[in-house]
Specification:
mainly alpha; 12 helices
Length: 252
C-alpha cells in the first residue's frame, strides 16, 4: 500500500489532494471529519471517567479507524479484549485495524481465530488472504486459502474465487448482472463486489483499477445507510480510496 500513509488521509483536510470526482462532496467530507473528531473527543472524555467501559473503547476505536488513525484504533480494540477476553476470537474489527496499521501477521492470526468462531463467513477468509499476502507473499496466501464447506451469501462465494484464479472481477460482476435480484439486494451485491475487487487490485498493485472500483463502492448508496457491519466496510472502502488517491497524486 503503504498503509501508514493514513496520516495523509484525504478526509483530514477536504481540500488536500482530493480529486474532482470524489464520490462525497467537499461539504460531506468536512462534516464527516468534524463529526468523527467530536466523537473521538467525547469518547475520550467518557473513558477518563469510566476507564473499564468496553463499549466506549469500541466506539472510539471505530471513530479512530474511520478517521484514518489506525494505530489508535488498534489500541482501543486491544483494550476491549484486555477488559473482556471473550471478545478475542470474534473481534474482526481488530483484524482489519491491525491490517491497516501494518501489523499483517497479527491481522492474519485474528482472522484465523475468527474462522474457529464462524466457519461460514468468506468475508473473514478474504481478510485472512489479504493479511497473509502482505505478511508472507502471494504464493503462501494462495496456498493458505481457507476451505469452506457451507454456503455463504452472494457475492462472497464468487469474490472468494478471485484469489484462487477461478474467477475475475469481470466474472463476479457479470454474475451479479445475470442474477434475478433487484433493488437493495442488487446494490448490496454490487457494493461488496466493487469493494473487494478494488481492495484486491490495490493488494496486487493495480492502483488505477483499484481507485475505480473503490470509488464505485464509496458512491454506492446502500453501504453508508446499511447495518453496522456493512457500514463499517463502507468506511473501509472510503478510507482506502482516499489513501490511494493521495498516493496517486503524490507520484504525478
Amino acid at each position: 500500500m503503504p498503509l501508514l500513509l493514513a496520516l495523509l488521509l484525504v478526509v483530514v483536510s477536504p481540500g488536500l489532494g482530493c480529486c474532482d470526482d470524489h464520490p462525497l462532496s467537499a461539504d460531506d467530507r468536512a462534516q464527516l471529519t468534524a463529526k468523527l473528531d467530536k466523537q473521538i473527543a467525547d469518547f475520550t472524555a467518557k473513558i477518563e471517567q469510566d476507564s473499564k467501559n468496553v463499549e466506549l473503547y469500541s466506539r472510539r476505536g471505530d471513530a479512530n479507524f474511520f478517521r484514518g488513525r489506525f494505530a489508535e484504533s488498534v489500541a482501543d480494540y486491544e483494550k476491549m479484549v484486555e477488559l473482556n477476553d471473550e471478545l478475542d476470537n470474534s473481534h474482526w474489527r481488530r483484524g482489519i485495524a491491525r491490517f491497516y496499521a501494518g501489523k499483517f501477521e497479527g491481522a492474519a492470526q485474528q482472522f484465523e481465530r475468527y474462522h474457529s468462531f464462524d466457519d461460514v463467513d468468506r468475508e473473514n477468509g478474504i481478510w485472512r488472504y489479504f493479511s497473509q499476502f502482505k505478511a508472507y507473499g502471494a504464493d503462501k496466501a494462495k496456498q493458505g486459502l481457507l476451505k469452506y464447506k457451507k454456503d455463504d451469501r452472494e457475492p462472497f462465494p464468487s469474490v472468494y474465487k478471485l484469489f484462487s484464479g477461478e474467477m475475475t472481477g469481470v466474472d463476479v460482476l457479470k454474475r451479479i448482472d445475470d442474477a434475478e435480484v433487484k433493488g437493495d439486494e442488487r446494490k448490496k451485491r454490487l457494493f461488496y463486489a466493487d469493494l473487494y475487487i478494488g481492495l484486491n487490485d490495490a493488494l496486487e498493485g493495480r492502483n488505477e483499477s483499484a481507485i475505480k472500483y473503490l470509488r464505485r463502492s464509496t458512491a454506492n448508496k446502500w453501504g453508508p445507510v446499511a447495518g453496522y457491519g456493512p457500514n463499517y466496510m463502507w468506511h473501509v472502502g472510503r478510507v482506502h480510496y482516499d489513501l490511494l488517491v493521495e498516493k496517486s497524486q503524490k507520484t504525478k
